[in-house]
Structure formats: C-alpha cells, structure tokens
Write a structure and sequence with these properties.
The protein is built from 5 helices and 2 strands. The protein is mostly helical. The chain has a two-stranded antiparallel sheet. A hairpin with a 3-residue loop joins strand 1 and strand 2. Helix 1 packs across helix 3 and helix 2 crosses helix 3. The radius of gyration is 18 Å and the shape is elongated. The chain starts with 10 loop residues before the first helix and ends with a helix.
C-alpha cells in the first residue's frame, strides 16, 4: 500500500481508496478479513485512529462489515454495482487519454487506432 504524505488527500482517504480498488478488483474476496487495524497502522507507520477512520469509511460505503473482536471483513459485492464502478473508472481514464491526445494534437482516428492496438496487444498477451 502506498501512502503519500504530501498529496493533499488525507491519509485515511488514500487507505480507503486503495482498499476499495482492491475489493472491487476482486483482490479481497467476500468474507475475507482486512489486515488488523493495529497491524496496518504499524506497517504504514500511521496512527491507529487514521486506520480506524479508513475502515469506517469503507464500512459506510457498504464494502466491509465490522465484527467485534475480529476486525473488518469484505461484504459480498453486487455484480451490477461492480460493473458500473468499473465503467465509471474506465470513462475517467478515457477522458484523461482524450485530453492528453488533444494536447499532443493526436487526431481522433489515431487515438482510436491506438486504443484498438492496445486492446489487441492485451488480448494476445493472455
């Protein structure tokens, strides 16, 4: 897990965001427990309070549930919600690519060809 002290984003939000991405990507499965609050705080060299705040953020978003004395475990994820979240993230990345292409004076047709080439490269690598 990467924490950037001077990113302008609060540390608890960075932690929650990274766990959210991992959960939505399937790196944490339904019923799997997140690292202990104290263990994560020690590993990241941050306060326990910051870690608790991050986990509470995940719980508020319905991604995890707290179990007294055991920690936080990953909730089952709605496949339609997961798909929608991935589409939103994809749209964000594509909008960034479009902006970069405009700055570099790359025509739309070339941008589309680059995307097709990347898709083909990704598919052939599997």
């Amino acid at each position: 897990m990467r924490i950037m002290q001077n990113s302008g984003v609060p540390i608890y939000q960075q932690i929650a965001g990274q766990f959210k991405e991992d959960i939505l990507a399937g790196k944490f499965k339904q019923g799997e427990f997140l690292p202990s609050i104290r263990g994560l705080a020690k590993d990241l060299r941050i306060s326990v309070i910051t870690t608790i705040k991050a986990y509470e953020e995940l719980e508020k978003n319905g991604l995890v549930t707290a179990v007294q004395g055991k920690g936080y475990y990953v909730n089952a994820q709605d496949s339609e919600m997961l798909r929608e979240q991935h589409i939103r993230k994809m749209e964000e990345y594509l909008l960034n690519a479009i902006s970069a292409a405009k700055i570099a004076n790359v025509p739309d047709s070339e941008l589309i060809n680059i995307l097709k080439m990347l898709i083909e490269t990704e598919e052939s690598g599997k």
